[in-house]
């Protein structure tokens, strides 16, 4: 589902910001400004700023990085996914949230 949420990324050495390009039940595509750039296989913590739910943290791993678009990465959530995030994504996919609520 294509949605744009602000987020913060962290790992042991650095922190950066960004936004989602899309989310699914298993992961997300992110546009980030973290420096140096993330690499495939890297473990990160992502803090999403969800409408009506506020900040929700989830552990994830970087699955791919774009060679064409700097800062664009694909991540996979590390189970267990926080209930607030899982239920929000389920509502998005079911069409229960309108676009203005989701962006």
From TrEMBL:
Pfam families: PilZ
GO molecular function ontology, one term from the record: cyclic-di-GMP binding
Region described as Disordered: spans on this chain: 1-35
Source domain of life: Bacteria
InterPro entries according to UniProt: PilZ_domain
SUPFAM superfamilies in the record: PilZ domain-like
Name of this chain's protein: PilZ domain-containing protein
Domain PilZ: 2-94
